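Subject: AAA+ ATPase domain-containing protein structure
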Amino acid sequence: MNLTGISSILIVISLLITCIKCEFSFMSMLSSGVDKVSNTIRNIQCNFGECCTSEYISPDIDKLDDILNKEFYGQEIAHRVIINALRGHLTSANPPKALSMSFHGPPGTGKTYTSQLIAKFFYKKGDQSNFYHFFNGRNDFPLQEKVNEYKEELYNIIINSLQKCERSMFVFDEVDKMPEGLLNVLVPFLDYNTWIKSWRFTSTSINTRKAIYIFLSNTGSSRIIQRLLTLWEEGKQRKTTKLQDFENLISVGAFNEKGGFYHSDTIDSSVIDHYVPFLPLEEVHVKKCLKKAFINRGVHPTNEMIEEGLSYVIFGPPPHNIYATTGCKRLEQKVAAIIYANKKHRIEL
């Protein structure tokens, strides 16, 4: 082949390479343009609605810790466990699994209140966030015979939420009122699985590890009260009790008591990270609840008003009667009635 032929071939090759580069450059520009348009659309959407970004999800555990220090009466163990669990989960960019905490204790000890506080300092919109899901066992899952239907519904809700935001939170209240077997559907989401298929017949998968699950239940309450009473009789101060004094008896009680956790795979598979005891409240704690309820209504209570509020509280178990049977529950209504009665009395004078 002569030099002219070789030169022609080289020119053709050069032109082909140039065309390929042009096409690649064009595709890159097109892709970049699409990304910019997508980002612009996303930014506009986020200005008008909630997005799974740091603007809307910015957990402030320091503030939560501060509020619990001030308003979480008599629950030193629960306070420590919850704050440490949240910090441990959130400081890891790739946690090994979703965080799951189960709150157990008598009514009126702060279980629901605490879950609402967590949402408040987790999401910009608090418990009104689209990524916060609250279920009530009594209202949302009332019938045992529909447990399979509830399972499918719950599975789809969780999948859809995790697709929209990996930092979703799911709170299940009154677990003891849920149908047996319902919570088994959560095991794949709570286990040490990095990904889970979003739909049965596709390869699309989602990350399950960054979500938070909180269960609220009265199961194990009698065991908690009896254990605390035994420790008190042995001379052990409430503030010196530890998680280890209660955690195992809570899990055993929840597993064997009727309700959502009864013989549940969530317990049997050891996918619940923390069983958190909410201890029964004593008179000193109830007085603090009463004072806070009065102040929230703009009234600084007298000792007589506090004592009147305290007169509505029943303490047990006999013979010591040192724990409020319903904690601080119902006190808000009693305080409202006391304030009204005092105003009416002053007017009549």
